[in-house]
Specification:
Blueprint: E1 2-3, E2 24-25, E3 49-53, E4 60-72, E5 77-87, E6 97-105, E7 116-120, E8 123-127, E9 134-138, E10 144-148, E11 154-162, E12 168-176, H1 178-186, E13 190-194, E14 197-200, H2 203-214
Parallel strand pairs: 1-10
Antiparallel strand pairs: 2-10, 3-4, 4-5, 5-6, 6-12, 7-8, 7-13, 9-10, 11-12, 13-14
Helix pairs in contact: 1-2
Length: 218
């Protein structure tokens, strides 16, 4: 039976396919904000970077845990960002940096096959949707899962669900080259546009991206 299975390791980490080091599999479900959780504004939240070594293949995954970019109580909207990259054995640099956005809003904000437009200090960078980025793979238990193999920079997938109360929870996964990510991390102003929705990264988010980039091997 073919199905998509959500990630269990934090919403930021998308497991790599054994046959391809840069393959992404098992899309994480869109993450709704908990109404019982303490509200933290983007300016107050501290980002956390985690380093996770893999003893089996010698690779190391460095990830930025989910960080709040927007939280508008009046509009009842929230946007969160997560990122990670995998460095190969023997100090090999990563092929891509994986960026995931999670949205919660009364209405859906991400088009089904959305492009992600970045503005880095005003300079545009277009990450186009990649309709042919997915394939299938069979696990050891003979389960057929969807695997996402990035071939270039771009958006791998967009997913949406209806949360309790009718709100729309969405997630978008994109891949950036190390060069584009370095530009993003070094920028003093970063804006993201998805469809008609536009978001700006606050200083703490920019600092978190710079910290993540500083951990990347060249």
């Amino acid at each position: 039976m073919r199905r998509l299975t959500p990630i269990v390791l934090s919403l930021t980490l998308i497991a790599s396919c054994a046959a391809a080091a840069t393959a992404q599999r098992r899309r994480p479900r869109p993450r709704p904000a908990s109404s019982a959780a303490k509200t933290t504004t983007p300016a107050e939240q501290r980002a956390t970077n985690l380093v996770v070594p893999d003893a089996e293949d010698g690779t190391t995954t460095v990830k930025l845990e989910t960080l709040t970019v927007e939280h508008d109580k009046a509009a009842k909207t929230q946007l969160q960002l997560a990122a990670h990259f995998k460095q190969g054995a023997n100090g090999a640099a990563p092929a891509f940096v994986h960026l995931t956005l999670f949205s919660l809003a009364p209405r859906c904000r991400f088009p089904p096959q959305a492009d992600l437009e970045l503005a880095l200090d005003g300079a545009p960078v277009a990450l186009k949707f990649q309709p042919d980025s997915s394939t299938t793979a069979t696990t050891a238990s003979l389960e057929v899962v969807t695997v996402f193999v990035p071939k270039a920079e771009g958006v791998l997938w967009v997913q949406r669900e209806t949360a309790e109360g009718g709100d729309c929870t969405e997630s978008l996964a994109a891949t950036l080259s190390p060069q584009t990510f370095a530009r993003m991390a070094a920028a003093r102003a970063v804006a993201l546009k998805i469809g008609t929705a536009t978001f700006s990264l606050k200083p703490n988010a920019l600092a978190a991206l710079r910290d993540l980039g500083g951990r990347m091997k060249k």
